[in-house]
TrEMBL record:
The chain crosses the membrane at residues 48-75, 87-105, 125-148, 232-253. Belongs to the binding-protein-dependent transport system permease family. It comes from Cellulomonas oligotrophica. GO terms for molecular function: ATP binding; ATP hydrolysis activity; molybdate ion transmembrane transporter activity. This is Molybdate transport system permease protein. Residues 306-536 form the ABC transporter domain. Residues 275-296 have a biased composition (Low complexity). One of its GO terms (cellular component) is plasma membrane.
Length: 692
């Protein structure tokens, strides 16, 4: 039974439980069952019990009404002094209740802060039943706030962002997404608050007194009976314990999240594979002809009328995240957005979706949506994680968007059914999100985005969390959808396959700026940024052109420039700094002093353990850093002057013959003809960028 816990933990755990249970048992043993019944059913006892239950229920409702918004503000907003506010709200947890009672007296009492205005209105709070409720709420509120705030913080609030992009306003998001998802947390917070209110004593006796039938709750009755009739006190104490236990156990049992409705589990059964196969190709039937065959993607139906693709103009700045990007995207174009971690790709998408505040402008088909909230931007956003609304079944999750945009329940479900069918997930309609495999969940997430017929599709690494095979299916599915219905799309990815299969254009971001932008084939053939070079499987050294020969000079010799004519191959020398000078060839007109990138494929690099003599134009001394398999070859990396990393692909036999190991000093050689030099838009520090 104890699989991961050390056995010794049982001892302190048992002692802790005993410390709580033993005194209660002692209390029960001390009770005389025959006499107890008469004592607890006496009018005074029943009055006190009724008052306790009634006031505790009202106090719990007050805690929910006041505490839930408080928890939401604390968990979902940022404002100066937030920590202080939280500490003050939670103060009653650590304050002796009698101190709380005194504080309430000085607030609502005759000479208290609010006492005089209340008196003018003819309202008297202290020593009334209202005072009991106020005292109970005062001490119980922190339990609700703490429970709910904790639950809110453990939720992924990006689900709320997704709901906003699907067309839901803030109140709808709160009502249909946030609150249902934290219901178990809210329920347990309310139970704790109720239990605390039921047992409240110190603040009540100080602020409300002990007037039988008015303010004398059960804890007060027990206290007062202690000296007058100890047996009655014990009997009433047991009654209080029983009531408190019944309520907490009962509500916990109903409020706890259930596992009912779970299907075959996150990684699915055979049904799962069939579904994935069905999603693999638009319009194809599942190869096994199983359930997936019926669930194959279907063409768009009238229920999901297609909007024409939109032109997109982005000129956004998000200063606190260092993003400054200007892009014009043609209708129906699929732009792969690439870049190192932290380059700003997700921020760009979030700015377009309206999820992060930015400056500048976003125009969709010429319409300025810069200041529009996410729900009015008509974007479909799909992230790395599916972020499904797990409190709904798949059909209602996908119907959430159309419903938020004003379609009735039936029409929304019809649209959801069509969208699910389009991604080959129709057979999943009745399941809950937690009962889907990763690939299935991601297809549902895509269907949900498509169900609102977005003008733009924003895909933030949609396949990154999927297994290779499942990602391939999802990629093919997306391709099929894009062919059926071209849609302007920004696709963040780190995967060359996504770029090759799905994108028309590549934009590379670095430090929040566009450093490369062009058609896919062009960028991969002539990468100018480290990231694009790595993606294309080549290495890249940046530097400055110091000589450009073998071609006619461009524009005479003005400014000392030399250069080759565009289209003619000519030799170019690039200084990468730290003494590393490389000679390559270029077909671009390059000017001395211009930033340039020298690109080399690892298979064109030869490795020597003694300095070579003879023909190669580039002989670079390196220290080997690592060796790793690269297909049937071994990729050998070495660091040259200035920290520049270069790589060579060798056969395992050559690696063995040369006895190459990390730390070996060697020479990499490359022919000038194998080193392609391209102009770069801007130069990072020369020679500092190299990838592999
Ligand atoms: N919630 C946030 N609050 C503040 N700064 C953030 C937040 N999220 C990201 N950043 C910062 O904004 C910059 C851009 O991050 P972003 O997540 O857009 O990069 P990315 O290119 O999508 O990276 P990755 O490939 O790792 O997802 C980074 O400097 C990052 O630290």
């Amino acid at each position: 039974m104890i699989r991961t816990l050390p056995r010794w933990v049982l001892l302190p755990a048992a002692l802790g439980a005993l410390l709580v249970v033993l005194p209660v048992v002692a209390l029960v043993l001390r009770t005389d069952p025959a006499g107890a019944l008469a004592l607890v059913t006496s009018p005074a006892a029943l009055d006190a019990l009724g008052l306790s239950l009634g006031t505790a229920v009202v106090a719990t409702v007050a805690c929910v009404v006041l505490g839930a918004p408080l928890a939401l503000v604390l968990a979902r907003t940022r404002f100066p002094g937030q920590r202080v506010v939280r500490a003050l709200v939670l103060l009653p947890l650590v304050l002796p209740p009698v101190v709380g009672g005194l504080a309430l007296l000085h607030t609502f009492g005759r000479r208290g802060l609010l006492g005089t205005p209340l008196e003018l209105l003819g309202v008297q709070v202290p020593f009334t039943t209202v005072a009991v409720v106020v005292a109970q709420t005062f001490v119980a509120l922190p339990f609700l706030v703490l429970g709910l705030e904790g639950a809110l913080r453990t939720l992924d609030d990006r689900v709320e962002d997704v709901a906003a992009t699907l067309g839901a306003g803030p109140t709808t998001v709160l009502r249909r997404v946030t609150l249902p998802r934290v219901l178990p947390g809210l329920a347990s917070g309310a139970v704790l608050a109720f239990a605390r209110a039921l047992g409240e004593f110190g603040a009540t006796i100080t602020f409300a007194g002990a007037l039988p039938g008015v303010t004398q709750t059960l804890p007060l009755e027990i206290y007062l009976q202690r000296s007058a009739d100890p047996d009655a006190a014990v009997a009433l104490a047991v009654l209080l314990v029983v009531v408190a236990l019944a309520v907490t156990v009962g509500v916990h049992a109903t409020g706890a999240p259930t596992s009912a409705g779970r299907g075959p589990g996150r990684h699915g059964g055979p049904d799962d594979r069939a579904g994935q196969a069905a999603g693999a190709g638009a319009g194809r039937t599942a190869p096994d002809g199983g359930p997936g065959a019926a669930a194959a993607p279907v063409p768009v139906s009238p229920a999901g009328a297609v909007r024409p693709a939109a032109a997109l103009r982005i000129a956004v700045r998000v200063p606190d995240r260092g993003l400054d990007v200007t892009l014009d995207v043609a209708p129906g174009q699929v732009v792969a957005v690439l870049g190192e971690n932290g380059a700003g790709k997700s921020t760009l998408l979030a700015a377009v979706a309206g999820l992060v505040p930015g400056e500048g402008e976003v125009r969709v088909d010429g319409v300025d949506v810069t200041r529009a909230p996410p729900r009015d931007r008509h974007v479909g956003w799909v992230g790395q994680r599916p972020l499904l609304l797990e409190h709904l079944d798949v059909l209602d999750d996908v119907a959430f968007g159309p419903r938020s945009r004003g379609a009735g329940r039936r029409l929304s479900r019809e649209r959801a059914t069509v969208a699910l069918a389009r991604v080959g997930a129709g057979h999943l309609a009745g399941r809950r999100g937690h009962a889907l495999s990763g690939g299935q969940a991601q297809r549902v997430s895509l269907a949900r985005a498509l169900a609102t017929e977005p003008r733009l599709l924003l895909l933030d690494e949609p396949f990154a969390a999927l297994d290779v095979g499942v990602a391939a299916h999802a990629r093919t599915l997306l391709l099929g959808l894009a062919r059926q219905e071209p849609r302007t799309t920004l696709l963040v990815t780190h995967d060359l396959l996504d770029v090759l299969v799905l994108a028309d254009r590549v934009v590379v971001l670095a430090d929040g700026r566009v450093v490369e932008d062009g058609p896919v084939a062009e960028v991969l053939a002539r990468p100018r940024s480290a990231f694009a070079a790595r993606l294309a499987g080549v290495h890249l050294v940046t530097g400055t052109v110091v000589a450009s020969a073998d071609g006619p000079a461009r524009g005479g010799a003005a400014g000392g420039a030399a250069g080759g004519a565009a289209g003619e191959e000519h030799e170019v020398t690039v200084d990468a700094g730290a003494g590393l000078v490389l000679v390559g060839t270029s077909t671009e007109p390059l000017t001395v002093g211009e930033p340039a990138a020298a690109v080399v494929e690892p298979r064109a690099v030869a490795v020597h353990t003694v300095r070579p003599t003879g023909s190669p134009r580039n002989v670079v001394p390196v220290r080997l850093t690592d060796l790793e398999p690269s297909g049937a070859l071994v990729r050998v990396r070495g660091t040259a002057a200035g920290g520049v990393v270069l790589a060579a692909d060798l056969t395992p036999r050559a690696v063995a013959a040369l006895a190459l190991t990390p730390g070996t000093d060697a020479w990499f050689t490359v022919k000038a003809a194998e080193l392609a030099v391209h102009a770069r838009p801007a130069a990072p520090a020369p020679g500092a960028t190299l990838v592999g």
